């Protein structure tokens, strides 16, 4: 009898629990629940693993209506973040985490009350801020953080990003990724605090004015 093996799977089954469980992620042969994400993409999972590894998933899954139709919908979690969540729940790893899904994944990790994953994402972001010489990455992430959470949010991620952006001078002639909402959040959270702020007050005024003008021009087009 010829045994069917998975393409792109180099290690024989049974040698690594992590590798074997990774194969279950989003594989239609093994799933018994569908997770519809905010971007319209459906990710498939295994109830037993999700419910065992997450109290939040357990509460969702053993809801009477879900038990009947085996479908869950998440209006505020996209598929890239959901894949990070499933990867962590299945393998305790987060190899698919990257600069483009940090904020969405952090938000999802809070929703599912995954404390360890939250800490891993924070550590990943701190290392990124220390190693990455591109200051705009921090501005991009801070803007995404404010958009995803709110101007009132105060969490470990927002504090890491505020420190990252504040330590670098804001240049008025530079077109960057810091949104007006992100700038407002930065100024509110650093006002009358001990957080080091590299930009002098007058330069902040210039930077803010020019950014607002650019926004008006952009909206006009």
Automatic annotation (TrEMBL):
PROSITE patterns: BTB. InterPro entries: BTB/POZ_dom, SKP1/BTB/POZ_sf. This is BTB domain-containing protein. CDD domains: BTB_POZ_ZBTB_KLHL-like. Gene3D superfamilies: Potassium Channel Kv1.1, Chain A. It holds the Pfam family BTB. SUPFAM superfamilies: POZ domain. It comes from the Eukaryota. Residues 31-98 form the BTB domain.
